[in-house]
Amino acid sequence: MRKGASGWLAKGLLLLLVASFGVWGIGGDMLTSSVGSNVIEVGDTSVSLGEFQRDYQRNLNLLSARFNTQLTQEQAQQFGLAQMTVNQIASRALIDEKTKALGLSADDEAVRKMIQSQPTFQNQSGQFDRFMFEQFLARNGYSEGEYIEIVRNDITGNQLFGTLSQGVTKAPTVLVDTFYAYLAEKRTAKYIDILDSSIGFAPAPSDEELEALIKENPENYSGPEYRKISYILLTAETLAAETDISEEDLKAEYEARKSEFDTPETRAVVQMIFESEEKASAASKKITDGADFAEIAMSDLQLTPADIDLGMMSATDLLPELQGPVFSLEKGGVTEPIKTILGWHLAKVEDIVPGEEQNFDAVKDQLKKDILQNKAQELLYTEATKLEDEFAGGANLREAGQTLGLTVVTTDWIDASGNDKTGNPVDGLPTVPGFLSEAFARQTGEEAEMSETADGGYYAVVVDQVDPAAVKPLADVKEQVTQDWQDNWRHEEARKKAEALLVRANAGEDLEKIAADLGLTVQTSSAVLRSGAAGDLSPVARDGLFDLQPGAYGVNVNQAGNGTLLYGVADIIPAEPAKDQDAFAQMSEQITASIRAGILAEYENYLQKDIGISVKEELIKEYF
């Protein structure tokens, strides 16, 4: 989705998509309070504060997993997670109320098939895995009954909404043409680039001016925040180090898999296959009388040595009827005629490579590693559940670790990049995505919480101490801030110079003459669209180019940010659908899809008003 949304076509449709979905969600007139302890009421369906909290926490966990970090309540508020949960619960309740009124239903068999067909619950063989299903329920806080009802609701909801927009098969041509003409138009710019370096001498700033610049941009002249953290990390590797596999278990595994560790005997085999026993027996007699096996193959069957060579074969590589006779021969021996489904075989053993057995001691370490690997997810989940139970019971990180015999690691001062106060990377920190982000999002004193890693591991991290980021004294950063002040001064002077030239250009003076006066040349940019890559221009200059009329000029920062452009429209290249039919067709499909989505949104908006929704907004805000 991210890749698809990065193109100019998808970005250009955002305006339409926003308009189509503007009616989705809970309207302001429905955010009212009602009597009782419920926070949401939809028709005859009521949702208690506890039920809302469970859904909210579940959404918080899912969103945290997507960002690979545990989101704080403040971050959840920025994402509008409470309103998203209200919309989600209300939408589900609306569908339930309406499908019941219409008599729509989904039987248990349909629900079962839907659940078992979901890839999330299928093993490597594509079969439903009950253990994976139960893990999913536990991770997301669902009971089995709750999840079944959600799936049933999805099925009946599809029955309700599935046919509403089917009549919309194609977006209106005039709408597609208008969007395409706007979004696919290209322009080139003619410009002169007035570099900051052309300004030359810059005055020396006073300490007051330097202090003012530091005050305006304190983040540029501050040392990072440092923290001391403690954490428990549960991975397959850490469990392997702490899990003891008995000698008896290892030996049982060895006996069960002994054949895997043995290198079987192999033999270089050549063979001939005859249509009848008579022909095979005649050839066998010739070989017994001293004829060469390969010569008989050529004279009787017209087969070359390459045709009869099977290569190095283990017993299992051969047909069952051949295995015993071939592997009972000495080197150079030839079998009697042997019948298989392919005909009558004569086989000769050209060479023998003995098999090799690996004893228990030779594969003991591999056996232990394999057993732990097979048990890793189960062990990880079990240990994580125990740790989470300890936290739920009020234990802090160290108490929980001591109770369960888990290692609690405490760091010295580190920054958000994992470096110490000397700027060197700290050895041994977890490389789990999101770990440091979470460690620097949490506050001291917060209770420990479990977080899951992308590879199925778990961790819990708490903040012990915080050394806040602080602006460095002027004496420590004077050289840097002086350079920054002078660079800013030159940039501002270059902008003023460009704005003075803009007056001349917009008064009708030729851009080439202005450039010649400066000892510069007029450049022409590559063609650019309204969105996407800006080419030779900066994004803001590209945006300004599409606001200009032919003959007019503008001023904006250059691509590198080290100068100012004075530019105008060089050429306007109209959209040509015939030259990019794929993009035109894609736009038509996306607009059609957004119209369909708009129809569904309007219908849900109608259901909100018809069935009625009441939301205790103030109570939700108080808690979330």
Written account of the structure:
The structure is a single chain. Helix content is 50%, strand content 15%. It is an alpha+beta fold. Helix 3 runs parallel beside helix 25, helix 6 (81-102) packs across helix 9 (144-161) and helix 11 (207-216) packs across helix 22. It starts with a helix and ends with a helix.
What is the number of strand segments? 17
Give the class from helix and strand content and strand pairing.
alpha+beta
Per the principal axes of the C-alpha atoms, what is the gross shape?
extended
Oligomer: single chain
| Major sheet | 4 strands, antiparallel
Domain module tally: 4
Fraction of residues in H or I helices? 40-55%
Quick structural summary:
Helix content is 50%, strand content 15%. The chain has 624 residues and is of the alpha+beta class. A hairpin with a 2-residue loop joins strand 8 and strand 9.
Features:
alpha+beta; disordered N terminus; Chitinase A, domain 3; extended; four-stranded antiparallel beta sheet; 17 strands; single chain
SSE layout and pairing:
Blueprint: H1 2-5, H2 8-12, H3 14-21, E1 38-42, E2 45-48, H4 49-67, H5 73-78, H6 81-102, H7 108-116, H8 130-140, H9 144-161, H10 173-183, E3 186-195, H11 207-216, E4 222-223, E5 226-234, H12 236-242, H13 247-256, H14 258-261, E6 266-274, H15 277-288, H16 293-301, H17 305-308, E7 309-313, H18 320-327, E8 338-340, E9 343-353, H19 360-392, H20 397-404, E10 409-410, H21 435-439, E11 451-452, E12 458-467, E13 470-471, H22 474-506, H23 511-518, E14 523-524, H24 539-545, E15 553-557, E16 563-573, H25 581-611, E17 613-615, H26 617-623
Antiparallel strand pairs: 1-2, 1-17, 3-14, 3-16, 4-13, 5-10, 5-12, 6-7, 6-9, 8-9, 11-12, 15-16
